[in-house]
Amino acid sequence: MDVTPLVEKRLNDLTERIITEIHSRFPQGIKIYEIQNIVEHELLEAKEYALAEEYITYRTQRDFERSKATDINFSIHKLLNKDQTVVNENANKDSDVFNTQRDLTAGIVGKSIGLQMLPKHVANAHQKGDIHYHDLDYSPYTPMTNCCLIDFKGMLENGFKIGNAEVESPKSIQTATAQISQIIANVASSQYGGCSADRIDEILAPYAEKNYQKHLKDAEEWVLPEKREDYAWKKTQKDIYDAMQSLEYEINTLFTSNGQTPFTSLGFGLGTSRFEREIQKAILNIRIKGLGSEHRTAIFPKLIFTLKRGLNLEEGTPNYDIKQLALECATKRMYPDVLS
């Protein structure tokens, strides 16, 4: 809007008086409502009644908008009316699922209390959109952990307890991946962030070797000596593929207690034994194939492939072929991400 030089001078003079008043009265810091009070006072002192009326109306509206952020009834009303800002806030949650609806309702309470717990300047910045305070439905209201790098190696080797079940160390790769999916489901239900499995190929290799030894023992009874090793290896390859495919399907069909698909990441790529290499290839080939009859790209787990000079980076290195497969997978399915 164009203003005349005279009006512009009046506004500049008024702004200077307001700034001077703020600095003289609050040299160490000031709250929003104190600024608003000074602005109103200076407008009235300058007999700018029309402008003062507009400002008071604006202030009242902003106060109302801020209060809505901590108004539980208002927020629940938005949820019941399927407001997109509520039901689609987290892409990992299906708002049509019952336990998701309960979690969203609980999240409204958590956000309301959280905004009151945060320092006012942080809460105000979040509400204005200057910053985004992540996971406000959980933090700072509940003392829950965020992301977790789970010790799958120790749990699989030593056994663990979930609920009422004492779980022993697995005797096959199929059982190992089934246990991993159960661990992920339980950890993800007890926190609000992601679950990571580092060097999953190396973690699972000992259990794939158990499959191989079992098939080799069976072959001694039923297979000609010269074909036993090949028989056992081919059976183990299928076991590895089936186990890794099962893990991908289970992660994508799991719902945690808050109705969310567990945000899971798998790191791999440094193993060099034939079992570790086969697990790496299975992970990538399964992702390339896609989920279901329509071969859709899996959302989870996130795949993280490690590059290492002398291992898979240059042609002629032991795992160069797997790196090439990882590049094909990333081209077709966006993952894996690459670390080096």
UniProtKB/TrEMBL annotation:
The lineage of its organism: Bacteria, Bacillati, Bacillota, Bacilli, Lactobacillales. PROSITE patterns: ATP_CONE. The keyword Nucleotide-binding applies. Residues 1-66 form the ATP-cone domain. Gene3D superfamilies: 3.20.70.20. Pfam families: ATP-cone, NRDD. Keywords: ATP-binding, Nucleotide-binding. GO terms for molecular function: ATP binding; ribonucleoside-diphosphate reductase activity, thioredoxin disulfide as acceptor; ribonucleoside-triphosphate reductase (thioredoxin) activity. One of its GO terms (biological process) is 2'-deoxyribonucleotide biosynthetic process. This is Anaerobic ribonucleoside-triphosphate reductase. GO terms for cellular component: anaerobic ribonucleoside-triphosphate reductase complex. InterPro entries: ATP-cone_dom, NrdD. The keyword ATP-binding applies.
